[in-house]
Amino acid sequence: MILTEPGGEGENVFELGAKDITLFKQHPVATSARNLLACRVTDVFGEGNRIGVELACNGRSLVSQVVPEAIRELDLRKGAEVVAVIKASAFRRLY
């Protein structure tokens, strides 16, 4: 996934992997991550051990990759509300 951050001189472009987005049912009690986004599940797709969860977060789309057990444990379905947690170290600056 490619993300852009407007501002400054030109755009800053970052890459973020779907495996770097951790989902929680509610705001986690303890985490060192500073990027916590309230999101709504817009789609769940895939099969086997690779399940994608498409999220709508602040007018943007993200995709998280989860294991099948997470679908059941977090009750991930269209319309479900989750918190996406992303550590700052997960963002890789492209330019």
Question: What key phrases describe this protein's structure?
Answer:
OB fold (Dihydrolipoamide Acetyltransferase, E2P), 95 residues, mainly beta, single chain, globular, 5-stranded antiparallel sheet, 3-stranded antiparallel sheet, 1 helix
Model description:
- With 95 residues, this protein is mainly β.
- The chain has one domain (18-87): Beta Barrel (OB fold (Dihydrolipoamide Acetyltransferase, E2P)), CATH 2.40.50.
- 6% of the residues lie in helices and 49% in strands.
- The protein contains 1 helix and 8 strands; from the N terminus they run ββββββαββ.
- The protein has a 5-stranded antiparallel sheet with strand order 3-7-4-5-6.
- The longest helix is centred in the last third of the chain and has 6 residues, at 68-73.
- The two termini are 14 Å apart.
- The relative contact order is 0.32.
Write a concise synopsis of the structure shown.
This protein has about 100 residues and is mainly β. It has one helix and eight strands.
Indicate the CATH architecture.
Answer: Beta Barrel
CATH topology: OB fold (Dihydrolipoamide Acetyltransferase, E2P)
The class by helix and strand makeup works out as mainly beta
Rounded to the nearest angstrom, the radius of gyration is 14 Å
Total helical elements: 1
Helix content: under 10%
Q: How many distinct domains?
A: 1
